[in-house]
Amino acid sequence: MKIEHIKTLGALKASGYKSKSIKDELRDNLITKLKNDEVVFEGVHGYENTVVPELERAILSRHNINLLGLRGQAKTRLARLMVNLLDDYIPVVEGSEINDDPLQPISRYATELIEEKGDDTPITWMPRSERFAEKLATPDVTVADLIGDVDPIKAAHLKLSYADDRVIHYGMIPRANRCIFVINEIPDLQARIQVALFNILQEGDIQIRGFKLRLPLDLQFVFTANPEDYTNRGSIVTPLKDRIGSQIITHYPVDLETAKKITQQEAKLNANQTGMVTIPELAKDILEQIVFEARDNEFIDAKSGVSARLGITALENLVSTAERRALIAGDDKTTIRLSDFVGIIPAITGKVELVYEGEQEGASVVAFNLIGDAVQTLFPKYFPKIEKLEKQEDELPYDDLVSWFFNSADGFELLDDLTEKDYKDTLDAIEPLHALLTKYQPNLAESERYFIMEFVLWGLVQYNKLSKFRYTEGIQFKDPYGSFIKGL
In angstroms, what is the C-alpha Rg of the chain? Predict the structure, then answer.
């Protein structure tokens, strides 16, 4: 019999349906997926050999879970994806506030209804999409919000004494019975509120305003938290930690390829943008390398973390910068330029916490320097490495290019809003740059060529072979010592 035809308790019993706790439900469905070699946590990258196995072990162990990690490490996403391990539908006593199982009712309402109607008790079916509840822990959260309180309006309406448990208004947790319940940023929850969770986690009863109700709630708790050494606003109280079965530590992507996969998946780019703007592979690498550089930068607070959202919003800003430039210039198509990376600075400054020295430098300066740091890190993968100490008599691959700038008294300007044609003509004017690319990157696609030409200039700046000056309309590249030698 199809579930939509099962409308009463009697029909449910006749179908042979057996009740199952949510933790057993998660466990059984996970076992099935593992046996079938299915991807359990779709769209989560970089955790295949670290976080995901630990999370699967916790589910197999029927544990409540605490996901501990810095911001932007997919903690909430993991919790939400656990919904996919639930059954498609579960039966619920119709009208129950706390999703009573018809075969194992726990509320007074459901118990009395079944006593009155027996096998004719009406039931409904709850889809798994509705079996997820989430609460962001903030200092103003109360016990009444989470667990419940006496409702004087209900008492007056039903003409009941406050001693009658029917005057109780259930909070979010009882109403999430037989669901996954997530509390984000659990350290921000006041200690006295955390204490109120003890009985629910361990003994299965709740206490509201003097009522001690034996409600064996069936819940899968998932908590998320930042490391306590960063979250100075509070911490998880020790007895609560003791009642959480598994604490799983999340982390940032460890390589560029994983980071790129996450960014490409999450960035909100529409078809018009992707059709107009071509993104060279090196540009994607630089974008992710900026995030890696930020996590190691001395001016940025490492304890606060640098979220994966930085790369996502930076890509959106980068494409929008190129799109805006093309629209102004009247170009139908364009390719990302390194100078477009100036447009991602607002995405960086809002995502990083600076230490005192960083505040003195200025957020925009720190962000701009991260672009150069990323270029410097990736430069040796494409061109010969520039050593810090070189012998003067040594002939270097970049000598002709540096000499070209030495002989250019006014320097070389690359304006931000050049049309595609003017941009290419401007870079084509640097003849030694073509020779360098022909020798070391002979198989470049046209869409990559001019980006890498600009990449060379930025790289030489990072190794002090050229100087770079950023002004309102663009960037000027010059020989760093030519003006002194010529007496200009």
Answer: 31
Task: For residue 317, give both structure tokens.
Answer: 């800003």
Q: Which of left, alpha, beta for 253 (phi over 0: left; psi -120 to 50: alpha)? A: beta
pLDDT at 201: 83
How long a stretch of residues is the chain? 488
Residue 460 has a pLDDT of: 94
The Cα 396–Cα 328 span in angstroms is 40
Tell me the one-letter amino acid at 328: I
Tell me what pLDDT residue 206 has.
Answer: 72
Q: How many helices (H) and strands (E) does the chain have?
A: 23, 16
DSSP H helical ranges for 363-430: 363-378, 399-406, 420-428
Query: Exposure pattern of 360-383 as b/e (b: 16+ CB <10 Å)?
Result: eeebeebbbebbbbbbbbbbeebb
Greatest CA span in the chain, whole angstroms?
102
Q: Which residue positions in the chain have pLDDT lower than 50?
A: 229-231, 484-488
pTM of the model: 0.87
Name the 3-class secondary structure at 232: coil
CA dist 252 and 69 (Å) reads: 9
* Tokens read off for 257: 């390829």
